[in-house]
Amino acid sequence: MKLRIETSSIDTLTIRLFDTIDEANMPWLRAAASKLREQFGDHLIDLVPSYTTLMLHYDMQEMTDSQACERVQRALAHLETAPPPQPGRLHEVPVWYHPSVGPDLLRLARQTGLTPEQVAIRHCSREYQVFTLGFAPGFAYMGLVEEALAIPRLATPRRSVPTGSVGIAERQTAIYPLVSPGGWNLLGRTPVALFDRTREGYSLLQPGDRVRFIRVEQPEFILLGGDDTPMEPLL
User: What keywords does the record list, in alphabetical order (predicted)?
Assistant: First the structure.
């Protein structure tokens, strides 16, 4: 880990700790975020962790850019010797894997030489780290998907992806929290609500959390409140 501080705007710093994406980065990014919140206190406007960096938005009426950089250096001076914090919450997310709600499932099965059931089983076989939130409210970028299931984004994104759709893009997996356009390969759908304005923090998933997908069949999916309205496959 090597600390680098970059000025992104007149009141925003990008704090770079790593150069490559790795699941082992997140405990250190969480530890850094905790120390920065303590150091900046009420002068912190926002702090957003990502794969290798943290974006820090501070109150420019209370400090200059150089003063903000000094605070960052003080906060993280001894981070290397700090023990990593406990991992974030583990969420078990039920998913109905089926071509009617996961229109790319059959194509991924063909490309990997697996059956659709085997694709689902392997997608459920590991815990995924939540790296960062973005694209849409509550949209969590998670990884790392095993290499055998890695598949590029769609060349032409769909105009509308239903809420709860579970997809893969390269070695990342994600759940669409709201109806939106999207180019991820869809394998199934979950009934779990990812974004709720009445929830503290709004998003169910937060950076540092872990997710394990649980395979369910259609009756249980519906019982849990899932919408089984089918999607049209891409031509």
Answer: ATP-binding, Hydrolase, Nucleotide-binding
